[in-house]
Design goal:
Largest sheet: 7 strands, mixed
Number of helices: 3
Helix content: 25-40%
Order of helices and strands: HHEEHEEEEE
Radius of gyration: 14 Å
């Protein structure tokens, strides 16, 4: 079952990259919740209103590691934007069966053209 969770996460990120909103929506439970440094327990509708963006700004993404156990999984990835900005985040996924019930995002450092960019608080 842990391999299946890793496959679900990989498919989710492929759907983000290809801008397949329907596939992303279908991977979430109806009572999905999202938390990040900017959002606290927002629901599925609010997530798509605030967080869904056309993915043409992404040059590439690299899923670095996925650790899945029981009903959860951690994943660290790096994303490089077409303008040269890159960032590395870690996310914790909670599953309900084969669907994602929660995502908690932990932001990492941001770089632009290889130089660290201090984020505004």
């Amino acid at each position: 079952m842990t391999q299946r969770k890793s496959d679900i996460i990989r498919a989710l990120f492929a759907a983000y990259l290809s801008n397949d909103r329907k596939a992303v929506e279908n991977s979430f439970t109806e009572d999905f919740r999202f938390t990040s440094p900017y959002d606290d327990e927002i629901d599925k509708a609010t997530y798509f209103a605030r967080c869904w963006r056309v993915s043409d700004w992404i040059e590439r993404q690299q899923l670095e590691r996925i650790f899945a156990e029981s009903e959860g999984a951690f994943m660290t990835y790096q994303c490089v934007a077409k303008g040269g900005k890159s960032f590395r985040n870690t996310e914790f996924f909670t599953f309900e069966g084969d669907r994602i019930k929660r995502i908690e995002v932990y932001f990492g450092a941001t770089y632009e053209n290889g130089a660290f960019v201090k984020q505004k608080s």
